[in-house]
Amino acid sequence: MGEDLTFASLTFKYFKPRTAKMPLFSNQSLYQLTMPIYMLFGDSDQLIPASKSINRLKQFAPQAKIELLPDTGHLIINQADRILKFLNLQGS
């Protein structure tokens, strides 16, 4: 419980909600990306439609590694090991 309370406290202290419309990369901009891309989506995200985003990435950024996390909403936490593994593979 203490760790959860600390996380919540830090979140509310530093989180600045975006009130402006989310920027959207054009298809051409996505196509021009050459770096490795790792995208994690929650299958229950109510803010960003995962299926639409995944389809666009597959079409315009085919180098992207995409994972759809089950039983996960918009807040994706505790994924550091997964992300570090991806980053380490890029560096080898």
UniProtKB/TrEMBL annotation:
InterPro entries in the record: AB_hydrolase_fold
Superkingdom as given in the UniProt entry: Bacteria
Gene3D superfamilies attached to this UniProt entry: alpha/beta hydrolase (3.40.50.1820)
The name this protein goes by in its record: Peptidase S33 tripeptidyl aminopeptidase-like C-terminal domain-containing protein
Species: Paenibacillus contaminans
